[in-house]
């Protein structure tokens, strides 16, 4: 069997047809919901016939309606509380599932060499033209000073130990410290 490839224009046409069909079905679904809502309201809340009622009867009708409204408000509040509780629980469970799945594994970081100018540009923004030569700010050391330090008297250490031993050595150390 030979597989046929679908051209890009054909794919685009099929996608547009699918979108049009989905839009049509969504509109139908919204119309059905609206019709169902109207039907439910007609059943549960028939139109009121207030003509020919006395003032006392109208007051009694208002009291009944207020009592029904209070009951419905309490039910609505309870349902909203349950919904909020359930959504919080669903979020917590989703977080646990993602943690168990290990979706948040951190990638291995790579070392990237960035120049000092690039770091300053990223910190200060591209509008600041700051060029900083780090080596220019370093303290320069003359070679002569380092060579002088190296040429310290090298003598026999045994003589030094014998000279410093006993009370005479401690006296010399004490005198040298003052």
TrEMBL record:
One of its GO terms (biological process) is cardiac muscle contraction. The keyword Coiled coil applies. The keyword Methyltransferase does not apply. One of its GO terms (molecular function) is actin binding. One of its GO terms (cellular component) is troponin complex. InterPro entries: Troponin, Troponin_I, Troponin_sf. Residues 16-75 form a coiled coil. Keywords: Acetylation, Actin-binding, Coiled coil, Muscle protein. Belongs to the troponin I family. Troponin I is the inhibitory subunit of troponin, the thin filament regulatory complex which confers calcium-sensitivity to striated muscle actomyosin ATPase activity. This is Troponin I type 1b skeletal.
